[in-house]
Structures are given as C-alpha cells and as structure tokens.
Amino acid sequence: MVETRLIDGKAFAEGMRARLKEDVAAFVRETGVTPGLAVVLVGEDPASAVYVRNKGKQTVEAGMASLEHKLPADTPQDEVLALVRALNADSSVHGILVQLPLPASIDAQAVLATIDPAKDVDGFHVVNAGRLAVGLDALVPCTPLGCVMLLKDVLGSLAGLEAVVVGRSNIVGKPLAQLLLREDATVTIAHSRTRDLPGVCRRADILIGAVGRPEMIRGDWIKPGATVIDVGINRVAGVDGKARLVGDVAFDEAQGIAGAITPVPGGVGPMTIACLLANTLTAAKRQVGAD
Ligand SMILES: Nc1nc(=O)c2c([nH]1)NC[C@@H]1CN(c3ccc(C(=O)N[C@@H](CCC(=O)O)C(=O)O)cc3)C=[N+]21
C-alpha cells in the first residue's frame, strides 16, 4: 500500500499564469502589442459556454485581449469560414480558437483547415499536427502539453518509462503520444478495440485516461506506484441526483495503488487553459517577430 500523491493541476496552472502575466507585460512593454485571443463559439452547448467564459476571464487576467464571437447553432458553414478568414486577416488577433464540438451541420476539419497555422493556438491544424510529428517547432495542443508538464514535474525525466495512453483522439491521444515520444517514453496508444485493455494498462509507469468514459479505468488496472493522468471530464448524476464531475479513472479505487494521480476537477482542466494562454503569447511573439 502506497500513499497516493495528489497532482495539483490547479495550483500548477495558477503558478504558470502568474509567470505568464509577467511575460505578457514585458512583451507589451517591448513591442506595444497586446496579444489577442479570439474564441469562436457556434451554438449554445452549456458546458462549452462555461469553458469559454473561464478562458475569457483568464485571458484578460493575464493581460491579453479576449475577443468572443458567439454564433447561433444554425449558422451556415460559409459564415463560420468567413469569420475565420476575417480573424486570420486581423492583426490584433494572434490566436484563434474555434470551440469543439461544432454542430453536426458544420465540417470541423474544413473550419480547422481555414485557421492560419500561425494563429492556431489549439494546435489542431494539420500543419501543426504534422510539424509536431516530425519534430519541428509547432503550436502544440493544450491538453497534451499540460499533461506532459505535470508528468515532468512529478517524475523529472520520462526517458525509458512505459506510457500507455487510453484514447486516440486527434485533440488528446495522438498529440499526447507524440509529446511523450519526444520525451523518450515508450508509448502505447490503447483504444476501444485493444485486446486485454486492463493488462495493457497494468504495464504502464505512466497511465493516461483520455477516452471520455466515466471511471472506465479501474483501480486494479493500475500498476502499483504508477503516475496516473486523468484527462476525462464527465458530468454524471451523483447519489443525491445532482450533477458531479468524474474522470475516466475510478479515482477512489486508485488510492493506495497509484503513486500519484490528477483529480477531476482541479487536475488537467486548469492546465489546458494555462497552456492556451502560453500558446497565445508564443503565437503573438512569432507574429510580431519578437521570438
Ligand atoms: N477548440 C477547443 N479547444 C479546447 O481546448 C476545448 C474545446 N475546443 N472544447 C471543449 C474542451 C474542454 N476544455 C476544457 C478546458 C478547461 C477545463 C477546466 O478548466 N476545467 C476545470 C473546471 C471544471 C468545471 O468545474 O466544470 C477543472 O477540470 O478543474 C475543462 C474543459 C477545452 N476544450
């Protein structure tokens, strides 16, 4: 039985944002340019609205400009593309985030492909995904970046460690695997078709849940002492009928087995926003030629 350490992503993200605020202030002093982040929200998804509000607030707190564009759910795709093109051309906008998921009537890949890769602070454009894959400078997806920062804080070097990523999405699983490879981990991407998923997970020194299924990863899938990063943010009904947030990992079962684990909320979520702000400053520096 080990004492499982709680990985406090919320505190780590607060520290990052405090340092970022100083870097933003220095950039504004040196260039006279205020970094601007444009967020495009199509439709009324209440969970998305909460994220957008938090992002907007923290962007302003860091000393950057937040520009929000809220469009109705039935906005034609052409209009969304026209807005993205206008933001590409707007020199006061250094980062563009189109909140996903988009309504089913809109081709998300077409929208992402229209974002100027230099302003793609989500790192979802194929140019940035490709640059990450071949080891060139890229804007890197925020959630994977936040996960690796937490892992390096807990473990120091990740070299030679067995990392198992459960989930193969373009926004988390695949880019996270690339980042872990870059850190010299031995990487397995597992998914719904993986044979003996519990057995594969039990090999992991680093286990990452990124599937979006509440508490799917059980305590006895965790190798004793492993570092567990829970990317899932699932809204479920609690025993009292009220909604509560749970991750992809059965958190209570992991206690006494995992060496360290991120909680939900307060783990990876806050890191995602901190990394988004960091990417926005990076993008602004490159666009102004101050990098
Ligand atoms: N283009 C795009 N980029 C995204 O990065 C993106 C997106 N679309 N669509 C939605 C998901 C979700 N997402 C979250 C970010 C922060 C928290 C977060 O800070 N959560 C807090 C609070 C959670 C709560 O209380 O609701 C926590 O986990 O502690 C959650 C979720 C970014 N996403």
Automatic annotation (TrEMBL):
Domain Tetrahydrofolate dehydrogenase/cyclohydrolase catalytic: 7-122
Annotated NADP(+) binding sites: G167, R168, S169, I233
Pfam families: THF_DHG_CYH (PF00763), THF_DHG_CYH_C (PF02882)
Annotated signal sequence range: none
InterPro entries xref list: Aminoacid_DH-like_N_sf (IPR046346), NAD(P)-bd_dom_sf (IPR036291), THF_DH/CycHdrlase (IPR000672), THF_DH/CycHdrlase_cat_dom (IPR020630), THF_DH/CycHdrlase_CS (IPR020867), THF_DH/CycHdrlase_NAD-bd_dom (IPR020631)
Domain Tetrahydrofolate dehydrogenase/cyclohydrolase NAD(P)-binding: 141-287
Keywords: Amino-acid biosynthesis, Histidine biosynthesis, Hydrolase, Methionine biosynthesis, Multifunctional enzyme, NADP, One-carbon metabolism, Oxidoreductase, Purine biosynthesis
Keyword Amino-acid biosynthesis: yes
Catalytic activity, EC: 1.5.1.5, 3.5.4.9
Top-level division of the source organism's lineage: Bacteria
Reactions catalysed: (6R)-5,10-methenyltetrahydrofolate + H2O = (6R)-10-formyltetrahydrofolate + H(+); (6R)-5,10-methylene-5,6,7,8-tetrahydrofolate + NADP(+) = (6R)-5,10-methenyltetrahydrofolate + NADPH
Pathway: One-carbon metabolism; tetrahydrofolate interconversion
Gene3D superfamilies: Leucine Dehydrogenase, chain A, domain 1 (3.40.50.10860), NAD(P)-binding Rossmann-like Domain (3.40.50.720)
Coiled coil regions in record: none
Subunit structure: Homodimer.
Family of the protein in this entry: Belongs to the tetrahydrofolate dehydrogenase/cyclohydrolase family.
HAMAP family: THF_DHG_CYH (MF_01576)
Role, per record: Catalyzes the oxidation of 5,10-methylenetetrahydrofolate to 5,10-methenyltetrahydrofolate and then the hydrolysis of 5,10-methenyltetrahydrofolate to 10-formyltetrahydrofolate.
Name under which the protein is recorded: Bifunctional protein FolD
Organism: Ancylobacter koreensis
